[in-house]
Amino acid sequence: MKISSKSKRKAALKHINEHLTDHVHEAKPTKGILELISYNENSVTMHNDIPIEELLEKCDNRQISWINVDGLTDQDLIQKISKHFELHYLLVEDLLNTDHQPKADEFEDHLFFTLKMLYRIEGQSIDYEHISFVLGKNYLLSFQEKEGDIFDNLRNRIKQDSGIIRKRGADYLLYRLIDAIVDSYYSVLESIGRRVEEIEDNISSNATELDFIEIQKLRKEFIYLRKVVYPLREALNKVIKNEDGFIEERNEKYFSDVYDHVIHLIDSLDTYKDLTSTLMDLYMNTINYRMNEVMKLLTVITTIFIPLSFIAGVYGMNFHNMPELQTQNGYYVVLIAMGVIFIAMIGYFKYKKWF
Question: Are 232 and 113 within 8 A, CB to CB?
């Protein structure tokens, strides 16, 4: 989506207050955490948890300014940032919508990019976080849903002037942040891969209902991951093909590299999805095999006792004129006959390899 009319933008800014009121969470608002990192090739300054007015004053067009906001419920904070950078109200709506799928939108003075960050696994649960970026001339805004992220290594590289990050513009910083997020997807997939292997081993040794529950959880996680990764491919493709110069030509190759990583992630997701379906088939086959073994054993036992029950039933009838009842050793003869039948049937079943 591209919006180029200044009159439309100024009119839209009037709706920011009303928009923020409608889209802030119903929960009691909490204070957002602010961070500013300003740098160029020769220097870097970092500011944490200072008033928004003071922070905005420290933004210098001669440097690259990265403003990071943790928490999206501080209505006043988001409003001041939006007014200072003249963010369109549609953009504000998207960054506050934590259920939004990954997307990229081009506005007149800035590029908007939003995606999901998967950065921590606690036990066997994936931690999801919504994050949005606004790229402008010499500045980058990042809005995170929760406190804490995976960018500490990048902050240290900026501080220590490691690599070329301080020699490039804000678009290169955007690339590095997106690349860090995409890299975290790989660790999540590796963890899921280990879970798949563990479940497969458990099913092979002793399948239980817990394995079925774990498979169902995996299937739900894959459905969500597909919703996260698939739209990201289109969003990156739109950034690479942008026509407004938000991304310098020399940096397009880096975004193309991230795009290739996302394609690889999609292939891996499809592979793991197929493995999960295979796990379900393996589980059902194992359970069915176990049930068949139980039914076979019960059938063998029942078959063995049918003739024995017949003999016991015949001689359990209370008739006075049954000839065998007067036989002196009849009881032992019948027991021996029943034993012979029992052994013969066991031998026959063994011969047929029924158990």
Answer: no
